[in-house]
Design brief:
Elements (H helix, E strand, L loop, with lengths): L3 H11 L12 H16 L38 E3 L3 E4 L2 E4 L14 E3 L4 E3 L5 E3 L46 E4 L5 E5 L5 E3 L30 E6 L5 E5 L8 E6 L8 E6 L2 E5 L8 E8 L1
Antiparallel strand pairs: 1-2, 2-3, 4-5, 5-6, 7-8, 8-9, 10-15, 11-14, 12-15, 13-14
Length: 294
């Protein structure tokens, strides 16, 4: 049997200690815990200055401001993108505010558009592999054919919208050359006809047919014509023909259209007129054609 002293010692060991569930904390400890709780509940931002973060996914419901540099991988923007406060990129296009939109401003490499369809090199030369339609004015200094190619003017009208239909006979235009005051001075038609309002100079002229038209715009076509018909009337020996086509070096050809053995001669040729004469008065009317060549 255990002694009373031994039983008392065992009872003291197995009896649990009394725990105060509401201890009195020191004042400094209580103040520290209160401050820590306040920071965890009321602070709206976290200062990460000088720290590195590695995150897999970040969801921000409001704004993100990055005042330094940023390195981004594949990026999707569900709205517009403003660059440097002057360039705005949206689904409608690229807009600039106050400054021109520059592409390859430093000319460090070629500009390639649509997979080589349009290429502009660093010297400013442009290559278009397809057709170019210009509704405004095209200003150029020189027209030069490409290597192994010719220059072709096709008067078939090209539709502004893409179409597979070939040009109909009525869908042809004219090649018009305009001079001062926008007046057409030369016209080339799809049928090969050409009209020139000024002087046409050629070293050699070959033609199957030669036709001289009267100036329809003149008030008196007889005085502005280079060809015509006239007649020396019976009982007279001469006739004077007025035309501004006659000059000091003009050649005048006379062809009688009435059977005659008389000789018609050109005399008194001067600026603005010439005279056709016989050596004596004629007994019948003598008709003739005349042609002035300068």
């Amino acid at each position: 049997m255990l002694s009373e002293a031994t039983e008392s010692a065992i009872a003291e060991i197995i009896t649990p200690p009394t725990v105060d569930l509401n201890p009195e904390l020191p004042a400094t400890t209580a103040a520290f815990l209160a401050k820590l709780f306040e920071n965890q509940t009321d602070q709206n931002h976290i200062d990460l200055s000088g720290r590195n973060l590695t995150l897999d996914t970040v969801l921000l419901n409001n704004n993100l401001s990055v005042l330094g540099g940023a390195v981004l991988g594949e990026t999707m923007i569900a709205g517009s993108l403003m660059v440097d406060g002057t360039i705005r990129i949206t689904s409608d296009g690229i807009q600039t505010a106050g400054e021109p939109l520059y592409l390859q401003k430093l000319q460090l490499a070629n500009l390639d558009i649509m997979g080589g369809s349009i290429v502009i090199n660093t010297s400013g030369d442009a290559l278009f592999t397809k057709n170019v339609k210009i509704q405004g004015i095209l200003g150029i200094d020189t027209v030069q054919p490409l290597e192994t190619h010719d220059i072709t003017f096709d008067l078939a009208q090209v539709p502004l919208q893409e179409s597979t239909d070939s040009a109909t006979p009525s869908a042809f235009g004219k090649l018009i050359v305009k001079g001062s005051d926008g007046i057409a001075v030369a016209t080339f038609s799809p049928d090969g006809s050409a009209s020139v309002s000024g002087t046409l100079t050629a070293k050699e002229l070959a033609s199957e047919k030669f036709t001289v038209e009267v100036d329809k715009s003149a008030t008196n076509s007889a005085q502005t014509a280079s060809v015509g018909e006239s007649m020396i009337e019976k009982g007279t020996s001469s006739i004077t023909i007025n035309t501004d086509k006659v000059g000091p070096k003009s050649l005048i050809f006379i062809t009688p259209t009435t059977p005659t053995d008389r000789t018609l001669s050109v005399v008194n040729k001067e600026v603005g007129s010439f005279t056709v004469t016989l050596t004596s008065p004629t007994l019948t009317d003598i008709s003739f054609n005349w042609w002035v060549i300068n």
